[in-house]
Write a structure and sequence with these properties.
single chain, mainly alpha, 3-stranded parallel β-sheet, 10% strand, globular, hydrolase, protein biosynthesis
Amino acid sequence: FGDIDVPEPLAQALEKAGFKRPTRIQRNAFPFIKEGTDCVIADRTGTGKTLAYLIPILGAMLPGAAQMEAEEPELAAFDPAFALYRMEAERLSALLDDDAEVQNPKKVRALIMVPSRELCQQTARFARAVVRHLPKRLRIDVLCMTE
């Protein structure tokens, strides 16, 4: 993963989690996602799409990870099939607000929305498999909702 500019701690965590080298879709998508470019990733099942967006997200979270206490979720995966209650949406909005006068050191740093419960669970499983091997753990909370 070093050839696509993945931070060394993350590259090591990926290898320990069993991901030895980036797939074609991961190599192609990484620079765009890392720069914050909106993109659509489409390929057949099993080509690494989930990690294609997780790798740059986790990489972006690493520089500030040492300053954070993992008491609140830092990465949250949500299945939007069922609308979140207004109170929860407002709480998340406040946590995601980068313009707040006082920065919340425990704010949600990434919110991933996926179209199904199965993909929500897969995304969380992959993220946890990698995060488990990082020097400083990031907390991952998952909310999978169905109708």
